Amino acid sequence: MGSLGAEFGFPTVYWPAWDVDATFEACDILPPASEGKLLAVLVHCFFGDNVVLADIRGRGPTVPSGRIEPGETVDEAMEREVYEETGARMHPDRRRLVGVTIMRPRKMPEAPTYSPVFIAEVTTFDPIPDDSESSGFLIVAPEELADTYYSWDPLLEAEFEYVLERRAALFPAGISLSNFAS
Fold first, then answer.
1. Residue 123 host element (H or E)
2. Were 95 and a residue from 40, 60, 120, 157 both cysteine, which residue would form a disulfide, CB within 3.0 to 4.6 Å?
3. 100 lies in a domain?
């Protein structure tokens, strides 16, 4: 499929902590321009109808996210970061790539990095590992995100709106009865 979500008109915002201009591109496959430029994964986790946020020391509540380690696949990074920051285990069939965050450094805008953005449904929680940078996790209703997220901005607002819409389309509520056919 490729690019999606054109109707959302994702804004570009300045993130001073990283000195980058950031935007979001909706897609269900990684764009060719991202090859060799993947930085981190970001995972919008849902437990029921609520959003799971990691409470990162020194930053605050955010989606589970982190760098892709050398030799690690994007899927392995997603599993690891969600577990390390929230203790969550994700449903193996209810997780999807929904886009990429594109960050262009102000000092080198011609050298962007890309961070794959996923949605995933959480099935269970284990204890957060002792060496985690997270001090815990929060389960937040979508309408409370703006007041809870550590650094809310127009890009995050548009991204979450898109993620909620994609989740409803990709993971409809209920269980298919075909799973129980004899």
1. strand 113-125
2. 120
3. yes
